[in-house]
Structure formats: C-alpha cells, structure tokens
Amino acid sequence: MQIQSNVSLRHLNTFGLDAEARYFAGIRSVEELTALLHDPQWKDFPKFILGGGSNILLTKDIEALVIHPDIRGIEILEENDESVVLKVGAGEVWHNFVMFCVGKGYGGVENLSLIPGTVGAAPMQNIGAYGVEIKSVIESVEAVDIATGEKRVFSNTECEFGYRESIFKKALKNRYIITGAVFKLNKKPILNAAYGDVQKTLQEMGVAEPTIRDISEAIMQIRRSKLPDPAEIGNAGSFFKNPEIPLAQFDQLKETFPEMPGYPVDALTVKVPAGWLIEKAGWKGFREGNIGVHARQALVLVNYGGGTGAQIRALSEKIQASVAEKFGVRLNAEVNFI
Questions:
Q1: In sequence order, what are the beta bridge partners of 100?
Q2: Do the domain assignments include residue 42?
C-alpha cells in the first residue's frame, strides 16, 4: 500500500470535478485497511472515504487522508436449488456485479442495472430503481470502524434502510468504512416489471414472457435513453430525491396542476417525481456556462467540462428555491455535498 500526496480526484467522481486529496490511499484488502487505521502516523489524521464517487459533489479540495476501498471479489457462501448467497467486495463495480448475477441466472438485482458506483456505496444509499431497492436482497454489510480499526457485521435490520438512506448516512455517518456486502439472490425469481416504462420497453423488444436478462436489458435501454453517460457528460444521476408530500397537499396541487403525477406511499402520503417538478418550473435543458440541467432528464445536473462543484451547488439551490416557490414543495438533494 502506497500513500500519495496531492492526488487529483477527477477520475474518482462521476461529475469529473478536479478536486485534490491532500493524501490518498488505495486499499485492496481488509487487512490493508485495518493496518492503515492502526498506524500511529495516521490514527488521528482526518480521513475521508471515497468509492466510485457516483453520488458526491466535490465543492473543494479534501484536506484529509482519502481512503479508496478497492476490495474486489465475488464469493459463493451458500447455494441450493432455490437461492444463492454471495459475498461481494466493496470495490466491485455495481453494474458489473449485476451483470454477473444476470449471467448466472441469479434474480433480485436486475432492476438495478446500469446504476453507477460500487458495491460498497450501494447499501449506504440503499440504491433503488424501477420498484426494487437493495435492502430487499442484502443479508448483511461488513464494515470497519474508522476510529478503532475493528471489524463489524451489520444485519439488514441494523442497517436501518430507508428511502435512499441507511444508518451509514445517519447515526453512523463517517464512522465506518464498508468493505463488503452479503446478498441473497433467487434462482427462481419473481420478476418485477410493474413500471410502465419497463412494460412498454419489453413490448417494443417483442418480449411476452421476460427473463431476468430481458428485464435488465429493458432497464438499460430506458436508462440510456434518459440519462447521460458520466464518461461523456459529468453527472451523478438523480440529483434530488423524489419528495413525499401529504395527500391533502397533493390533492390541492392537483387542482392547479391536474397533470401532476403522484404515487401513493401510504394512506396519507404521496411521492411526486422531482424531475416533473423541476421541468415544470422551467429548468429542463437550462445551461449556465459549463454546467446545467440535462436536456432529456430534468432530475440530472451536469458538468459539461470545466465546471466546479460550487457552481453546481449554487444551481441546485436555485432549483430548490424555484420549485418551492411554484409548488410549495421542498426538494432534498440525493447527492452528498463535500
């Protein structure tokens, strides 16, 4: 393990922002990580954990030791005719893991195809798409305490998963480094194709009885049609969470905006698409210098090249104010500001 100084993080954040790490350590095993955390030289030094950088906005240089968990590997722990349990390293690219599962016929993550980032970041955010959240397939999360270097296993319940939330973003924020996760997947999966876009795309593909590979392919087609490739245009996918508002407020808004979509969360709460609110507030396709709002998906803020995190943050705050003024709805960022 080599610790470097003044390292550009442009290649480790999907916005492509050129922030620097004061010190940087790439970690390839749990043993390397625990050794680093026990090293007296670094024990009291500020630390920052950075995976694939697919859900962060770097607004400044990182005056800390940036630890990049690059722990790889997919291991079968248990297997029978019905299911398989896999242990996966935090450094594995999430989409590569999904493709591995699809190729093996392991069902449960196909709806999460093409989501950027690493396996280690997935439980932190409780990633989700097209009717599936990662909490439905995670058995446990393995992590290391930053302060003590001690290893700990968190059960699904202990992770306290919520909508794009987990204990690692709340009570234990910045206290643990996720080193791996254990997934239980189905060999006889029940497919989830309830979303209209998925059904429509499967029909266009000529698929009447879809397999998990068909579901994965349909979702990849949808995502590619709506979302820009970070390799071409810097972005972090959905910048804002879909707000959940009281049913009474939703009904009132429907009187003024009858075309407003909404999805019941429970008897008293409705989820409204943030992208729809942003588009109707006039931001879709907006550009300001090197940054802007994507022309095909208003939920995605982009860096066309040369933009800064501070500029993108300022734009996001303008959008929040605009949506609040027009609809009385507060948008919360899904992306983490650094």
A1: none
A2: yes
20-72 per-position pLDDT tens digit? 999 999 999 999 999 999 999 998 899 998 888 888 899 999 999 999 999 99
Asked if pLDDT for residue 14 goes beyond 80, the answer is yes
Note the pLDDT tens digit of each residue in 136-163. Answer: 999 999 999 998 899 999 999 999 998 8
Active-site pick, 54, 113, 140, 238: 238
Query: Which pTM was predicted?
Result: 0.81
Question: What's the domain count of the chain?
Answer: 3
What three-state secondary structure class fits 168? coil
Taking the CA atoms of 290, 315, 335 and 254 in sequence, report the sign of the dihedral they define.
negative
Show the CA angle centred on residue 325, arms to residues 320 and 329, nearest 5°: 65
pLDDT in tens, 194-251: 777 888 888 888 888 889 999 999 999 988 888 888 888 999 888 999 999 999 999 9
What range defines the domain where residue 308 resides?
234-337
Kindly name the residue from 92, 164, 166, 216 that is annotated as catalytic.
164
**Which residues is 27 bridged to in the sheet?**
69
Residue 53 — φ and ψ, nearest 5°? 65, 30
For residue 164, what pLDDT is reported? Answer: 82
The b/e string for 147-161 (b: 16+ C-beta within 10 A; e otherwise) is eebeeeebebeebbb
State yes or no: is 164 an active-site residue: yes
Residues 6+ apart with CB under 8 A from 277: 243, 323, 326, 327, 329, 331
Q: Positive or negative CA dihedral for 200, 136, 117, 273?
A: positive
Question: Is 195:130 a contact under the CB 8 Å cutoff?
Answer: yes
Note whether residue 215 is domain-resident: no
212 belongs to a structural domain = no
Q: Is 200 within a domain?
A: no
Does 238 qualify as catalytic in the annotation?
yes
DSSP H or E segment with residue 278? helix 274-280
